[in-house]
Amino acid sequence: MIHVCYCLYDKTGRYSKFTGTAMLSMFENHNPPPPRHQSRCTSFTTTR
Amino acid sequence: MTTENCDKFSYVAGRYGQLVKFYNVEQLFADKIEYIKKMFPQASETRFSIGMFYRFFIPYLLAADIDKAIYLDSDTIVNLDIKELWQVELGDKPLAAADEVRADPFDHPSNAASNYLVTNGFVDYNDYFNSGVLLINIKILRKENEHLMDGVKFVGEHPQLIYLDQEVLNYLFSKNYLKLDEKFNAFVRKARRLNENLCYRRIYHFTGAGFGMDMRDLFNRLWMKYFAQTPWFDEETIGRLYASVQQLHVGFKQSMVNLTALMSGKTRAFFVAPDNIDGFKNFFAVRADEEIITVDSQESLNKLLDAMKRARGKKVFFIMLPNFPFQILTQAGFTPGKDFVNGLEFLSEAQGVPLNSYPLIQAM
Lengths: 48, 364
Prior knowledge:
The structure holds two protein chains of two kinds.
Chain A: E1 3-7, H1 16-29, E2 43-47
Parallel strand pairs in A: 1-2
Chain B: H1 3-15, E1 19-23, H2 25-28, H3 30-39, H4 58-61, E2 68-72, E3 76-78, H5 83-86, E4 95-99, H6 100-103, H7 108-113, H8 116-119, E5 129-137, H9 138-141, H10 145-156, H11 164-173, E6 178-179, E7 186-187, H12 188-193, E8 203-205, H13 218-227, H14 235-263, E9 267-272, H15 277-284, E10 291-294, H16 300-310, E11 315-319, H17 326-331, E12 340-342, H18 358-363
């Protein structure tokens, strides 16, 4: 399992799109191995 | 963070079969955050926010069985499989990061020359690292709680330090961290200066306001490619973009009116750098009777001030220098928009001054 953290202080609600875009780019380029005996998932964490 | 945005993050993660968790650092570590705010009251007044310190708490947030974590700044685009960074072996190092000598060779020399940590021997010039991409050894850093706060105290007591969270981490770990391959923290401004014409398999770091709307720039295109796939891009985004452009349009028209009022009964004078004088004269259609003061010595600023005193009320001075210290003119009793204007604001891409479209990105 891969753990990735982003940190976000977004009082106005206008900054989340940058974190969201960064996160999507990471998911889009990540190729996890196919499931075998059990599903493997990747955990992505944000702090706020 | 709003509930709406939390839902959007969960939606994005769900689309890829992934999981996102949220931790409210200000609640979980209220006393430490309070201490940090006291040490850095300026944190909310600059382009940075208290959020830059949240990364310090990552080792204490994650479950006890997690030994390692990646931290990424929000102004990054991951253009490779994150697995490549995850597979880097940390060994007994507390963290891995990219040094700025390689990540930022154009600006690092002057940044380092004025950085207190480097000039006073706390951090070696070649080891100063960027904190935007980190591979964190959770096992080791979980034991560093008080040590971390010592770093916060040190940096807090030295207001000459700017990149606060980065300075804390460098102060504590620059002598004992693992240097990452450049591809894991590739500064977009370096790629632009090198005129790179391909997006490579890297983690691109836009380092602040590096985003723009000009789609001729392939890094802007790279960011927009991913942004357009997020739930933050919808018809409301286009509406906000239009509202921003409309505001620019109204502002531009108003400034034209203001200019006619400003110049009424007055002539122009110019304070310019000596290179490309002919190009500047051509652009502004400068007449033979209009005064030009060229910057050719230390005395040039005094020449400007004297000329402005003699011509007060009769001329408007167009200052054509980047990073000009306008406060010198206001302190001498001159009024912006009446006695002088920033002449560079009249220039466009055609004269080599690109449009800063980051405000449009922010507005979206």
